[in-house]
Amino acid sequence: MEEMLYDSIIDNDTIKEEKTIVYNEDKSETYYLEDLDANKGKLETRYETIHHEAVEAIEEISHYEVIAEYPNGGKDVEKVIDRPGQAGREAYDEEVEYQVWIPYSEVDIQVKALDEEMEQLKKWLSDTDYKAIKYAEGWITFEEYIPMRDNRQNWRFRIGQIEREKAILLGLPYEEEAPVVDLHANDMPEDMEMSEEEENVVETEA
What we know:
By secondary structure, this protein is α+β, with helices and mostly antiparallel strands. It has three domains: 50 residues, no CATH class; 35 residues, no CATH class; 100 residues, no CATH class. Helices cover 40% and strands 23% of the residues. The strands form three sheets. Strands 1-2 form a two-stranded antiparallel ribbon. A two-stranded antiparallel ribbon has the order 3-6. Strands 4-5 form a two-stranded antiparallel sheet. A hairpin with a 5-residue loop joins strand 4 and strand 5. Helix 2 runs antiparallel to helix 4.
């Protein structure tokens, strides 16, 4: 039992965690993948062709030496290698895959944050489409729909802002920013004015 426990301890002590090595772009530096922050850079797969020269076959040369003799005439012999042998091979090229770590610039980090925000806004819009459909089909009143309509309009407006902010960061052309819409103001833009039916609902509820 003690011997088994000892073996177990030895095995645990000899286990080493293997880490993945990645390089910078010119392969002058190496990093451990596990130590890198995915929010500060990205990995790219690169390929490199390595040429292997031909290897000439070498025949092994050896001899035997007597290391013990016995009265009955028997002998113990030992093989002694004078020149190690070597298997030959033709020259060949090998394509090797490796990972390169590309740090994000400050602009990259800002664009990434904007992309993540836009993705969340689009998810909220998608997740609340059913409420717009319920209102359009008459399942909920205009009064019940107003808070969600305001939210959805704000999300769309913010998406437009994000697209312009990204264009500015990346030096791309962009449309002039539309005027900010105050969804709770009385002077709504014409395309957002309430219909007579909607106004009647609001007046009746008041």
